[in-house]
Amino acid sequence: MTAVDVPAVCGDRERVIGWLQEYGVYVGVAALLVFNIAFTPHFLSVENFRTQAVQVTPVLILSLGMALVIATGGIDLSVGSVMALAAAMISLYLGYGPVAAILVALVAGAAAGAVNGALVAFAGVQAIVATLAMMIGGRGLSLVLLPQLDGIRNAGIRELGAGDLLGVPYLVWVSAALIAVVAFVVRRTVFGRRLVAIGGNRRASELSGLPVRRTLLAVYMLCGLFAAVAGVLATARLQASDPNSIGQLIELSAITAVVVGGTPLQGGRMRVAGTVAGAVLMQLLVSTLIKHDLPPSWTQIAQTAVIIAAVYVARERGRR
Amino acid sequence: MERTGTAAPREAASEPGGPGGRRPFRGIGSGGAPAGGSATDFVQRHGALVVLVAVLAGAALAFDGFLGVGNLNHIAVGAAFPAIIALGMTFVIITGGIDLSVGTVFGLAGVLAAWASQYGSLAALALPLSVCALIGMLNGVLIARARLAPFIVTLATMLGAWGLMLAVSDEGTETYVIPDGLALTPLVQDRFLGIGYPVFAVLALFAAGGILLRRTGWGQQVYAVGGNEDAAALMGVPVARTKIAAYTLSGLLAGLAGALNAVWLGSGVTIFGIGIELDAISAVVIGGTLLVGGYGFVSGSLVGVLLLESIQHIINAISGLTSAYQQVVSGAFLIAVVLAQNYLSRRKRPG
Prior knowledge:
The complex is a heterodimer of chains A (320) and B (351).
Chain A: H1 2-5, H2 13-39, H3 46-71, H4 79-93, H5 98-121, H6 127-145, E1 150-151, H7 155-162, E2 164-165, E3 168-169, H8 170-188, H9 190-200, H10 202-207, H11 212-238, E4 240-241, H12 250-260, H13 272-291, H14 296-319
Helix pairs in contact in A: 2-13, 2-14, 3-8, 3-9, 3-11, 3-12, 3-13, 4-5, 4-6, 4-11, 5-6, 5-11, 7-11, 8-9, 9-11, 12-13, 13-14
Chain B: H1 7-12, H2 39-62, H3 69-94, H4 102-116, H5 121-144, H6 150-168, H7 184-189, E1 191-192, E2 195-196, H8 197-215, H9 217-227, H10 229-234, H11 239-265, H12 276-286, H13 298-317, H14 324-348
Antiparallel strand pairs in B: 1-2
Helix pairs in contact in B: 2-13, 2-14, 3-8, 3-9, 3-11, 3-12, 3-13, 4-5, 4-6, 4-11, 5-6, 5-11, 8-9, 9-11, 12-13, 12-14, 13-14
């Protein structure tokens, strides 16, 4: 919302839209920062920035994986359920030690992603259907494995969720590392070029000999893996495995972050920095509304408006 | 999103050997099956029914009294409210879209109906129906006029309807109760010959929906839009209007289901409806409607809902299994059906 009405002075509609697609998300983040500095007490404290950075972590990591999938022209609705699956695995395998439990959780996430990817790439199922089924089935499976909330009393997991290194929480380190990895993969590797090419024109990619199916499979596996990382970190922060409520509706936040960040839903383009800014924007928006005592109902209605506005702005690119 | 699907099912919707232009009007006639209906078409159209009969027969053998009137009524009434949602979803999916907002719209309608019931039965129906139809229309306008992807628009309004519901129910803390003696209550809760009235209402709605889809010009336009939007537009079909009507109908029916459900329960429960859109979509797909649009029928959706509900009852009947198994089975079922549809579609393709 904030992002939409700023450059109305420019006049030329095409140019405004194009400019908004590129930089709207940064304008939004800047506007929210300025607003908060001016009107929110105690906003400019280290503690507050720490809280914001920790809170944004799961959505940020999810949106990185989601951006990869969306760049190929697909979608992954199952990320919330994969988080739940990872949370259940942590609780089940904690007996073998925290490292083993986390590894099992990550493998489970990648496996769920592989199922999605195989259905999309090899069986030719629409991405939305394949991941919808995983969204239903994955949540069910994690509830079968772990029917209710299970508190985690493990020093290692607790340290991961609450500890810090050089004053920066581990959660933030992990998300920073993943941002760097994704940025490198997308900008500097053949794999990154391929996934964008597939999103741009799958048929052309096939005809020019790209391993389309293998790339798609890998992309969905990566998305599942990232979702599992988000699930592990959320579980560590909560210090409890809660497959019932972890990651509910979070796929919407992740998709929003990606779209607000300027990656079009049609695929063929991927913006890492924009995605990060998109996740930060949504986090700031929600925390601003909460800090100013707006009830959750208004928070959700505001998010709805932002999503629709962002998709509307992003749509124009597809037409040109 | 429409672009991401593979071409296979879409191509398969055309009849063997028929020129491309015939595809949109696939639904003409009561049968709708291509001439020379093969085993493949039989499976596509009636597969869910065969599975339903098999499941019920198996359950009847395994559990005493499963096919008693009491238990069947239980299944049918349980399926009634999701079925109403699935009916609207069928229209939306045949246009090639999807409506993810129906779950929270369903919940919103329940809360609105319970709140409005203090002003009488008419208000308890009119308020939720008009609000939900408006939400559906908003979906339709954003999708058809602004040309946004259906899943993201309806995902956003899913959140918006949830927010609206929280706003109405004092952030979810207030549970409105339907007052005793509401004229509508006996109409929803009573039974005729041991079968609850909602079941008859659903049968009537599906009959009306079937006629609307098969026998009216608008129904044919729905098929045409889903089959090939560009071709439909070139033939003069009002594409945007047809889509807006389909989404409005979906919102309206989800609202009706929510309002009736609230009356049936006696209160507007705020946590209801989460995830029900997934059940509705699964039911529609299991019933043989293609998610790429242009092909489908309402009776299949009814069978799909009954199948999912029966499976849930069987899972409940097996002691020691929680309802979480239902979700696993549901997800697996959805994939199995979609894979089967893809397989059948490929076999049907000439050459």
